[in-house]
Design brief:
Elements (H helix, E strand, L loop, with lengths): L5 E8 L3 H16 L2 E8 L1 H10 L4 E3 L7 H8 L17 H9 L3 H17 L19 E2 L16 E2 L2 H6 L1
Helix pairs in contact: 3-4, 4-5
């Protein structure tokens, strides 16, 4: 008797080649490990409908956000029919709710520490991450790049480039 293989479906946005390529790579690597991932490409409206209803095993999307409000909106459970993502993940709700009402630096530090412990003890997801993104900026701007930092995190420091410097670039 052949051993049973774990299998699941993964939703992917059908109109974005970045996600399709990543999904195919993950599918191949999981298959090599004995896991079958069936890809379900969907147009954006159908993908969002499935995500908000909780009708999925897995999905591949791009995540970007650095504020605690973004973390709250993404990981706080939303079973009440709101338009937020419905992952079924509830473990961090109490910690996220404490953070939402925190008013002092000490309360925020304690809340972030508690949230970190919850996410470590009961992770909400598996994350596929790539460390670098290629960026290009017009020579009309003087950008002070920092080693190992995305240039978009310093957009507030960009300055118009000297016209003489623009011509030489």
């Amino acid at each position: 008797m052949a051993p049973m293989r774990f299998s699941f479906t993964c939703l992917v946005w059908a109109n974005d080649n970045r996600f399709e390529r990543l999904a195919l790579l993950a599918q191949k690597q999981l298959a090599d490990a004995g896991i079958d991932m069936k890809l379900v490409p969907l147009p954006q409206d159908k993908l969002l409908a499935r995500l908000t209803s909780g009708d999925f095993d897995a999905f591949i999307i791009e995540m970007a956000g650095r504020s605690l409000s973004w973390v709250y909106r993404f990981w706080r459970s939303h079973d009440n029919g709101t338009s937020e993502l419905n992952t079924g993940y509830h473990s961090a709700d109490a910690a996220l709710d404490k953070l939402r009402v925190a008013r002092t630096d000490d309360e925020i530090r304690a809340g972030v520490a508690e949230l970190g412990e919850v996410l470590h003890a009961d992770p909400p997801a598996a994350f596929l991450a790539w460390q670098q993104t290629a960026r290009a900026v017009s020579t009309r701007f003087d950008v002070a790049p920092e080693k190992d930092r995305d240039i978009l995190t310093s957009v507030w420091r960009w300055r118009p480039a000297d016209p003489a410097t623009q011509a030489s670039r």
